[in-house]
Design goal:
alpha/beta, Rossmann fold, 3 domains, four-stranded parallel sheet, three-stranded parallel sheet, 41% helix, globular
Amino acid sequence: MGKGTEAAKNCVRCGLCRRSCLLAEAWPPGGEVATPRGKMILLQEMLAGVLELDEAGAEEFWYRCTTCGRCELDCPALVPLAELVIAVRRYLVERGRVPSRAAHALRRLRRYGNPWGRPAGERWAGVAGLPAKPPAPGEAADTLLYLGCLAGYDPRARRAALALAEVLAAAGLNFAVLGAEELCCGGEAYALGEEGLFEHLAEANLALFARYRVRRIIAFCPHCYHAFKALYPRRLEVKHYTEVLAELVEKEKIPLRPGSGRKVVYHDPCHLGRRHGIYRAPRQILRSLPKTSLLAAELEAEEALCCEAGGGRMWLDPPGGKSLLPRRIVDQAQAAGADTLAVTCPFCLTALEPPAKERGIAVQDLAEMVRLGLGRGD
């Protein structure tokens, strides 16, 4: 069936992963086939030639997964379940069996360099107020702030990215942006199984980075960070912005001032936390903010819930038409006594803000909170 699928044979069908996947029974139809174990059993049967894909639930169940990695925590055989799901999606893509909304997003990504099919000029027009400019032809961009597609086109994510750029500039950091030349990192194309498109975008980005002699990348989005860090054929020096801000705070490069008191719960993004173990830096920053109390959620760090927007599901409707985990994340914040839910991912920001508003809880990107700590308003 393709590369990497042999790892499915290591699954011993113990079922420990079932309790980790909170969406398996939440989205109808449920049953064993919807669980991580069910998917591995189907894959084992397909590899053994017992089942054809048509008999195995096809794309309906293979495109439910958010690739959050939570199921892998309990796997005693260390089966890379998320990567195996993506491997089956590659098989489906080769046969043209992709959910229609995902197929539309992939076509737009292929044609325009972003999944919304928006002109490149809009990407730069929206962030033209950044305290950084694209490099001139032949000019080196030693440190690049890579914004990503959501920050390029979504107004809410864009505000958070602008806040980050303002904080970095206030700390005296010299950096460049690519503006209209910035392309999608390709991470969600990879997650949806479109490997050829991912490879095309990776090659184009690597050529762009080489042209401007980029030495270091600061990624605003954890999904971009994951793509550059784990998926690209050539390893790049890349940091998520929370790692950079934590270093700047520790060196007292960011002049924080007392502000209004707030009680905060931090939501760990899947592709920053479970995928790369970055838990300390965001919390270190929050603890440095004056008059900010960092509270603990019931499930956090490696046990944190998924916002449901990863794994390409940003462009897919939830089965039954209702997202459940964003509300559970907000419930946890409310139960902890928080008035603010802090995020460090534009996917999480987009997913969590609507249910949080219903409960009177603010959702802010950590960069926005740091900018307020500089004594600057929204």
